[in-house]
Amino acid sequence: MKHAIKLFNDKKLRVEWDPDDEKWYFSIVDVVAVLTDNNFQGARNYWKVLKH
Known about the structure:
Elements: E1 2-8, E2 11-18, E3 23-26, H1 28-36, H2 40-51
Antiparallel strand pairs: 1-2, 2-3
Helix pairs in contact: 1-2
């Protein structure tokens, strides 16, 4: 898999490309950080609560 970092609104998103399935996989914590305008720790806590 190919690792990369994409920028969205000046925030970093960790992504991976799977050439076999031809799909991008995004770090959900990074996506939550962008959507909630939180830092990494705040996004991790938000995701942890949301999962439960």
